[in-house]
Write a structure and sequence with these properties.
homohexamer; 237 residues; eight-stranded mixed sheet; three-stranded parallel sheet
Chain lengths: 237, 237, 237, 237, 237, 237
Amino acid sequence: MAELSAATREALVKVGTSTLTGVLSRRGLKNMFMQRVWPIRPDQPRMVGPAYTMRFIPAREDKAGARPGGPLQRQAMEECPPGHVLVVDARGDARAASAGDLYCGRLKARGCAGIVTDGGLRDTDGIAKTGLPGYHQRPSSPPSPIAHHPLELEVPIGCGGVAVYPGDIIVGDGDGVVVIPADIVDAVAEEALASTLYDEFAEEEVARGRSLVGLFPVVGDDAKRDFEAWKKARGLA
Amino acid sequence: MAELSAATREALVKVGTSTLTGVLSRRGLKNMFMQRVWPIRPDQPRMVGPAYTMRFIPAREDKAGARPGGPLQRQAMEECPPGHVLVVDARGDARAASAGDLYCGRLKARGCAGIVTDGGLRDTDGIAKTGLPGYHQRPSSPPSPIAHHPLELEVPIGCGGVAVYPGDIIVGDGDGVVVIPADIVDAVAEEALASTLYDEFAEEEVARGRSLVGLFPVVGDDAKRDFEAWKKARGLA
Amino acid sequence: MAELSAATREALVKVGTSTLTGVLSRRGLKNMFMQRVWPIRPDQPRMVGPAYTMRFIPAREDKAGARPGGPLQRQAMEECPPGHVLVVDARGDARAASAGDLYCGRLKARGCAGIVTDGGLRDTDGIAKTGLPGYHQRPSSPPSPIAHHPLELEVPIGCGGVAVYPGDIIVGDGDGVVVIPADIVDAVAEEALASTLYDEFAEEEVARGRSLVGLFPVVGDDAKRDFEAWKKARGLA
Amino acid sequence: MAELSAATREALVKVGTSTLTGVLSRRGLKNMFMQRVWPIRPDQPRMVGPAYTMRFIPAREDKAGARPGGPLQRQAMEECPPGHVLVVDARGDARAASAGDLYCGRLKARGCAGIVTDGGLRDTDGIAKTGLPGYHQRPSSPPSPIAHHPLELEVPIGCGGVAVYPGDIIVGDGDGVVVIPADIVDAVAEEALASTLYDEFAEEEVARGRSLVGLFPVVGDDAKRDFEAWKKARGLA
Amino acid sequence: MAELSAATREALVKVGTSTLTGVLSRRGLKNMFMQRVWPIRPDQPRMVGPAYTMRFIPAREDKAGARPGGPLQRQAMEECPPGHVLVVDARGDARAASAGDLYCGRLKARGCAGIVTDGGLRDTDGIAKTGLPGYHQRPSSPPSPIAHHPLELEVPIGCGGVAVYPGDIIVGDGDGVVVIPADIVDAVAEEALASTLYDEFAEEEVARGRSLVGLFPVVGDDAKRDFEAWKKARGLA
Amino acid sequence: MAELSAATREALVKVGTSTLTGVLSRRGLKNMFMQRVWPIRPDQPRMVGPAYTMRFIPAREDKAGARPGGPLQRQAMEECPPGHVLVVDARGDARAASAGDLYCGRLKARGCAGIVTDGGLRDTDGIAKTGLPGYHQRPSSPPSPIAHHPLELEVPIGCGGVAVYPGDIIVGDGDGVVVIPADIVDAVAEEALASTLYDEFAEEEVARGRSLVGLFPVVGDDAKRDFEAWKKARGLA
C-alpha cells in the first residue's frame, strides 16, 4: 500500500493541476495529464490519493460467465485502500459504464479518495450524492459487461493516454487529472505549493494593473523582492 | 398515436437511465442508450414520452427551395402529439442546428415532453427558458439548412447510434437518453421501479458501511430479508 | 486597431449567436460559427470585441529556446488592445494549454474583452475568477510548449474551423462563438437586434399557445401587424 | 427507373470525379463528393449509373427476426435495375458489412453498374473477382445484422455526407464517388467532357514546360487559340 | 504453448475472415473482427496461428531506462513460438511504431506466422521483404519509445477493439483479422470450410445468372440438391 | 533558397523514414513524422528536398474574390524552387483538394521534388502520371475553394502535426514523410546511411537465423566485428 505523507497530501489539495503539470514538465515529465477525462460535477471536492488500478479489456461473450468470488469490480471496491484513488483503464471506451453509484458509494464509505476512468460512469447523480470525486470521459448508463471485461487489479495501466502505475499519486481538480510518480511527489508538492503562492501574489499584482514583464516569467529582482514583501505582510515568510 | 399508461409514465419518471439500461440488457437489448447525446442543462426535469420522429439527410443546394405548406420542421412542431418526445436523426452532425427556441417553445406549449437530436440545438438559453427538456450532442448556432434537409416524419431512424421507431418510449435523465420498445415498456418500468427501490435500500446500507458482498449483486438471503424489513419500516411492503 | 461603434457593441451584447449566424447566413456567410469551442463557464458574461489574433504551430524541440523580449504569448497579453478579443489558432489541439489564469488576468486588467482558442485553457477556475470570458475546446493543464510554438500575432488564422482575420468582430454567448466581418458588422448588428425583438414577441405568442404558422417564418400580414401592436404597447415603435 | 442517355454515360466514363466536382461547384453544388468512401481496388473499372438506394438503421435485437420474403438486402440485389448503382446509407458505420461477394455477384450478373456504401464491404477479394466496382469506407468482415437493420429501398439517403436521391447519377473513379442530379446530368457531362479535353491539352503543354499563367485558369486568348490548334491537329474540332 | 491441429490450420488458410465472422456470429460471438487493422500489403499471404501477446502502455520518461535482459519487445521476438502470431495491444495509438523490419525478420526466421498491432509498423517495405504477414492501423516510422512502453507478454489484451487471450487462434486475410477462441476452433474451421465450399458453388450459380432466392440464404431443397450434384461432379462428395 | 548538398541528397534517397526518425529521436527531436499523411501511390519514387511552404486557412465567402496576379496556389507552383518539396498546411482538412494534376504537373516540369499536404489531392491518377511524388491524407476531388483559402507562401506551418519551416529537409518513402532541420541534415544523413548499412547487415544475419541478442540493439563486440567483416567482404570498409 502506497504511502502519502499528511504534509504532501495537504499541499496537493491546495495546488491546481496546471501548477503540477508545470512542475512535472520542468522535471522532464511531459505526458502526465489525462486527455478527455473530466470531473462528473464542476463543484466536486478536489481529489488526492495514491492510485489503485483496475484493467478492463473488451468484453467477449465466451468470457462473460460469473466469476468465483463475485465480480472483479466489486473486489476492487472492497480492496482499494482508504485514501486511494481507483483508476480504471477502460481503453477510452465509454459505450458502457466503468462503475456506478453503489460501487462508488462503497469506495466513499471505505474512505477512498476518488475514482477515475477514461470510459464512462453511470448514475452520476447518485455518485455525486455519495460525495466521492469522480472523473470520466462522459456519462454512460449501459451496464459494464456490454463493452468491458474487468481483467485484473493493481497492474500498470494506461488511462486518458497516461501511464498509471499502482501507487502513483493522482490529483484531480476542476480541469482534470494529473499523475505524479510516488518517488518525487514530496518534492513536486513542495515546489507546486511555492509556485502556487507566487501565483497568488502575481494574480493580485496583475489584477491591480502590473505588467507581466519581469513578473511572469520572473526576470530580474523586482518581482522577487515584491514577493518577499507580500509574503512578509501576510506572515508567510 | 402511441399510448403510455399513467402508471408507467409515473414509474419511468422515478427511475434512472442506468437502471433502465440494466433492465433492458437483461432482456437482451444491449444498444438502447444514445451515445454522445447530453442534456442541454444539468438541472432540467426528467423526460418521458413516446417517440415522434423526424429524419434529416444532408442538405443539397438544389433541394433547398421553399416547401409548400412551410418547413417540415415546423410541421413536426405542430403535429408531434402532446406527451411525446420529438426525436431527430441528424446523422450525428452538429455543424448546424436541428431546432431552436421558437420551435421548442411550440412543442412545450402544445404539451410535448421533450426533444432529442444527435446533432445540435441552437439558442439553448431560450430552450431552457421554455422548460422543455432538450438533449443534443452540442450547442450549434448555425441555421439548420446549412447542413440539414428535413426529409420526413414518423419513420424509423437512428439517433445517437440507437434505432428509434415511432412510438418507442424515450426516457432522459441527467446522464442521457434511453429507448424502450413500447411493447415491453410496462414490464420494464415495473422492474426498474422495483430495482430502484432496492438500490435506494442498498445505497443506505452502503453509506452506513455495509460490504457489497451479498448485497450487490444480491446473493444469499440476508440482503433480501433486510430489504423486506426496510420496506416494511417505510410502509412499502 | 479595429473600431467598433458603441451602438453596435451594445446591440451585439443583446443578441445571441443563433440570431447572428442566421443573419450572416442570409448574407451568404455559411461558416462563421466555431465548431467545438465552448465557454469555460456556463454563466460567464457575453463577449463582444474585435479580434486580435495569435498563431501557434506545433512545438519542435530545436525551436524551444527562449525568445528575446520574452514569450510571444506574453507579448500578446500586453499588446492585445483594450476591448479586443484574443483569438488563438491552436490547430484544434488541446493536449497542452493555449493560455492560463495569469495571462488572462492581464488581458482582463488591460480592458480586453475575452479570449478564444480551439485548443485548451489551463486553470479555468483562475480564469473564471478574473471575470474574463473564455472559450476553448476543453480544459488543458499541461504547459503550452509541450505541444505549441507561438509563431506570430495579428495574421489571419483558422479557429474552430472558421477563418478569423484581425479586426473581425467576435461575439460569444452560452452556445459558442461567431465571427462577423468588420465591414458589415453595423448592418448585421442592426438586423440581428430587430430579429431579436421579433423573436421576443414570437416567444411570448408561442408561450401563450399561438401556432407557428404565419408567425415563424413570417408569412402574411397578421404576425407583422401583431408585432407592431406589441412594440407599440411597449413603447418600442 | 431513372434514365441515362448512352451519350451521357459514355461521356461520364471518360471524365474524372475531380472534373465533375469542379463543374458542379460552378453550378453552386458544393457538397457532392462522398467523404471517406474509397474504391475497394485501385484498378477497378470506372463506375457510372443512376442511384438505387437502400437505407440501414442501427440493428436492434427485437427487430432481428426473419422478414417475410427474405432479407431486404437480397431484394435490393434482385431489384436494383440493370445499369444502376446500389447506394447504401450505413450511417458511416463500418463495424459490420453492408454487403458481400454473393450479393455483389448477383448485382453484377444482373447488369448493375456498381455498389457504394459509407460503411464496409466484406470479402472484397470475392467482390473484386465479380468485376463489380465497389466503394466503401473500409473492409468489414462481420455479418451485417451485428450493426445494421436494412429498413427500406428507394428513398433519399445520406451516404458519405452527401444527399443521394433515387435516380441521381453516381460516378466513381480511383479517387472516390460523386453524385450528380439527374436533371442536369446531360449538361454536366457535356461540360465535363469539354473540360477534360482542355485538361488533356493543358497537361501536354505543362509537361513540355509551359507556364500555368494564362493556361490555367484560362486568361487571355493565347491558350484558347493554342487549344483550338491542338484540337484541329487531332481532328477534334 | 497453444496447439493448432494441422487439419484445422489447413482449413483456416482456405477460408476468409468474412466466413469466419459469420460462423462465430451464429455461435453468439459478435465482436471478433479487429476494427481499423489492415494488412501492410494487399497481396501478402494469409495468416493463421495461435496468439502470443504483448501489452504496451503509454511511455513515461521516468520508466524509459534500459531493461536488464534487453528490450521486452526483443524478448517477444525471441520467444514467440513458431507458428504463432504476435499480437500487440498498442491502445490504437499509431503515433510511434509497434515493431519494425528487424524484429519482424526475426519472427519470420523463427517460423512465426505473423504480427498484428492496432498501432503502426515501421519500415513496412522491409517487413514485406521478410515475407511475414503484418497487420496494423497505419505505417508509423517513429521509434516505439516515443509513445509506447512494452509492459508484459502473454496476458489477455485488447487489439482493434477485440479481446485477445494468449492461445486464441488468429486468422488474417486481405480484409483484416479475426480472433477465434481456441476451444472451438476445430468446429469453427470445419463449419467455415463447408460454408466456403457452398459459397464457391453459389458464386458460380450466381455468376451464370441464378437468382439469390432459395440460394442465399438457403431455403427449400433445390439449392441443397444442386449443391450435392455440384460437389459430386467435382469428386467432393 | 535552401541548399542541400548532392552527397546528402544522395544519402537521403537511400535511407528510410524509420531510420531517419530513429536518428532524429536520438538527437531529441521526437515529433518529426507526419501523422496520417500517405503516398498517393505505393510504388512512387522516394522524395527528398527542402520545404517550400504554403498556408491555407478556412475559406470564407467574403474573401473568395479573384486575386490580382492569379491564384496564390498557382504562384506556388511557379515559384517553388527546383529540387524543393511543396508542403501545404491544410489544417488536416481533406473535404476539398489542396492541389490537382495540372498544378503537380507544373511542379514536376519545373524540376520540383514533390508535394505534401495534410489535406487531400485531386485527380491522383493524373498526378501519378506526372511522376511527381505526392503525399496526402486521402483523395479529395472537390475544388480547393470549397474549404480552403490559400493565404501565404514560405512561412512556418504545421503539416500532419509537425512543424515545417521553409528550408527544412523533407523526405518521403512508402510509409510517409519525415522533416529534418536543415542545420543538422548533413550529420543526420550520414548517421542514417551508416545505420542503414548496419541494418542491411543485420537483416541478412537475422534472415539466416541469428538471434537479435547482441545484434540489435548492438551490445558487446561480436556484432561489431562481424559487421566490419561483412563490410570488408563487400569492399565497403
